[in-house]
Amino acid sequence: MSVKSTIASQFAQVAAEQERKLAPLTEDLKLIDCGLDSLSFAIIVARLEDSLGVDPFNSDRAVDFPVTFGDFVKLYEGFAK
Amino acid sequence: MPSKPRSLWESVTAAGGPCGRLHGLHATVALADLARGSSLGGRLDELRARSVLIAIKDPLAAALALIELDGVARRMVLSPPDLAAAHLPAVIQGAALDACVHEADAPPGPLPGIDRVVGIETTLRPGASARESSQATEWILLTSGTTGVPKLVRHDLASLTSALADAGPPPEPIVWSTFYDIRRYGGLQIYLRAVHVGSLVLADPAESVPDFLARAAAAGVTHISGTPSHWRRVLMSGAAAKIAPRYVRLSGEIADQAVLDALHAAYPQATVAHAFASTEAGVAFEVRDGRAGFPASLIEVPGSTVRLTIAGGTLHIRSPGNARDYLGEGAEALRGSDGAVDTGDRVEEREGRYYFLGRQGGVINVGGLKVYPEEIEAVINAHPLVRMSLVRARRNPITGAVVTADVVLADDPLGTERPAPEALARELLTSCRRSLAAYKVPASIRIVPRLEVSPSGKLVRPSA
């Protein structure tokens, strides 16, 4: 599974668990508008660390905090390489 | 009428005993033989009015030392067998110790401040010791401090035995056992009960759970105590049926409904009781109705010598079982301004019953919301396929922390098909979601083969 599809399925799963309506995950969807709260993002980041082996937010590298879904995917793709 | 303090030996003798036996792993001693013999090779008098470090590996030898020394020594420090050598100098200095009792065949190296060293054996040598009390000996117990250096908690025989019923000899012989080491408060309580009314089977760290249970059964164990973690280990050992006790006691950690129910099922003939006690606060109460938590009617009972209050969300206890103080220069105060010991255990009332939420210091902060690991563990542990679990904080860039759980599965003697670990983890998450607020639901669940249990019988919790 690609990094992008792993992330997308994690978004969908957490949204379902938290009983939240997830907006269609387009590249330019603003994360703030995607329907998830900060707890959902916290859970997604923890689970992605388990499945992808990276937590870009806790790395030594400076990160640009992602604004859109596309940014979020690129951030992980940059670290997963 | 103020009476002369009785030593443990005088107290045991007055209680109609000494009739029982102390069963160690390698030897058994009849308490009555202590009237005619000594484990200290006739050297008890060298320890009179001394401050004595009891640094003994063997639990049976330690059990004998306590009887020999109480009323004779000025002070004794009950050093648990796993005390780190690096902490010894601080303990010796803090308690102003000047003597040491140790195994006769394994003398310790030089210890600062100690100028008298006496060996002990579990084979009694003839020759009675003059064991009558010349003073109320101080009993010093060690508890773990936040910095790792043990705190010295000062008790005496009166405070340690305040929860013992003065009911005279029991109608049927009682054989106690405990998974605790007797140099910890939970084990010491069982030791003191046992020597007054019966016998005691002492646990040995070298022994497996099935072997220990077999030995306890052979000695005819009727009453047995341990922490919920000890008991989960028994339930996981496949050897629980080796014993058939009349009384099963839990203390030292929160007894959740799952472990209480599992023990009821394993020992249908037994009273399953959970007690609340701590080294500092002493024994506060025992609950025998088979339900987790305790009835609200125990709080602020007028005229009771054990006075329980809730202040700042935690249980406070004022009782004759309270320790006197912390020993050592500059030690913190044991009691608060209300004269009670704050146990640091958070409780919450629901429908006339108080439930323990967890330790005040063990809180996980998820985005500013407090989570008590024990509350989540109780939900997870209620699943029939789960034996025990550990909930801990996991660092998180979004909320500071999220909750994560490590889960140990129960033995499955029927060999029924189990769901795959991932499916089971999902099932557990679903039940957490049903009964917990979203921020308390673990972000991840791992199925693990085992969880670490400390020498004191409690789940090892990472210091947050």
Question: In summary, what is this structure?
Answer:
Chain A is an all-alpha fold and 81 residues long.
Overview of the structural elements:
The complex is a heterodimer of chains A (81) and B (464). By secondary structure, chain A is mainly alpha-helical. Chain A has helices at 3-17, 38-52, 69-80. In chain A, helix 1 packs across helix 2. The longest helix of chain A is centred in the N-terminal third of the chain and has 15 residues, at 3-17. The radius of gyration of chain A is 12 Å and the shape is globular. The mean pLDDT of chain A is 89. With 464 residues, chain B is α/β, with parallel strands linked by helices. Helix content of chain B is 21%, strand content 29%. Chain B is built from 10 helices and 27 strands. In chain B, the strands form 6 sheets. An 8-stranded mixed sheet of chain B has the order 2-1-12-11-13-14-15-16. In chain B, strands 7-6-4-5-9-10-20 form a 7-stranded mixed sheet, with helices on both faces. In chain B, strand 23 and strand 24 (369-371) form a beta hairpin. Chain B is globular. Chain B starts with 7 loop residues before the first helix and ends in a 17-residue tail after the last strand. Classes of the chains: A mainly alpha (81), B alpha/beta (464). At the A-B interface, helix 2 of A face strand 25 of B.
Q: Which properties best describe this structure?
A:
heterodimer; A: 81 residues; mainly alpha; B: 10 helices; 27 strands; 21% helix; 29% strand; globular
Mean pLDDT of chain A, to the nearest integer, reads 89
CA radius of gyration of chain A is: 12 Å
Query: What's the helix count of chain A?
Result: 3
Order of helices and strands of chain A: HHH
Based on CA inertia axes, which overall geometry of chain B fits?
A: globular
Largest interface summary = A-B, 14 and 17 residues
Q: Percent helix among the residues of chain B?
A: 10-25%
**Class by alpha and beta content of chain B:** alpha/beta
